[in-house]
Amino acid sequence: MHMIRKAFTSLGGILLAALLIAALAPKATRAIAAALVQVANTTANPVPVSDVAPTQPFQSECTVANSDTGSISDQCSILIPSGKRLVVQTVGMEVVSAPSARVLFGRFLPGTSGFPAEFDVVVPLTGPTPSENISEMSQELRLYADQQIQCQVVFSQPTGDNLSCSVAGYLVDIP
User: Fold this and answer.
1) Lowest mean pLDDT among 29-33, 100-104, 163-167
2) Contacts for 68-73 with beta carbons within 8 Å, 24 or more apart?
3) Does the 56-173 domain belong in CATH 2.60.120.260?
4) Hey, which residues does 140 pair with through a beta bridge?
5) Domain range summary for the chain, segments of one domain joined by +
6) What's the CA gap between 34 and 45, in Å, rounded?
C-alpha cells in the first residue's frame, strides 16, 4: 500500500511539473507539439491548397408598374451576369396597391442550373392610406442564383400595383 501511494505521489509530481512548464513557457510547449507534426510539401507530393477568389459586390433592383386591375400577381426579374453566380444575402420588396387589395405573400425565385428553389416572404402592410396600401419587407438570407432572380407578389384580389424588389450580395465565378 505504501508503494502504491509513493508511485501516485511521484506521478502527481511529474504531472504538476508538466503543467507548470506548459503554463509558464507556452512557446516551448508549442514548439514541442509542432515538432511532433510535420508537413512535407515537396514537388513530388505537394500539399493541396486553393485560392480564395475575390468576391464582387452586387446590388440590383427591378421595378414594375402594373395598371392591369384584372391581375392578382405581378413580377419582375433581376439578371445576373453570365459566368457568375450570385450569392444573395439580403432581399427587399416594396408594394403599393389599391386600398382594397392586401399582399398575400412575396416570392423570390432564383434561376439556377440545378434544382430551382423558391423563397416565400411575408410583406406586411406598413402604410395604409385612404388612396393606397404600402407593404414593405427586408430580410437577410442565403440564396444562390446563376441566371436571374424573379420577384413575385400575390394579392388577395385583382389590383393595379407598383412593385419594387431589391437584392444585395456578391458575385463569384461559376466553376
Assistant:
1) 29-33
2) 68/160, 69/98, 69/158, 69/159, 69/160, 70/158, 71/158, 71/159, 72/154, 72/155, 72/156, 72/157, 72/158, 72/159, 73/152, 73/153, 73/154, 73/155
3) yes
4) 90
5) 2-36, 56-173
6) 21
Burial (CB count within 10 angstroms: exposed 0-12, middle 13-18, buried 19+), residue 107 = middle
Question: 53 with 83: CB under 8 angstroms?
Answer: no
Q: DSSP characters for 56-93?
A: EEEEEEEEEEE--TT-SEEEEEEE--TTEEEEEEEEEE
The residue among 34 and 5 whose pLDDT is bigger is 5
pLDDT tens figures, 36-51 = 667 677 787 777 776 6
pLDDT of residue 23: 67
Return d(Cα 169, Cα 56) in angstroms, integer: 9
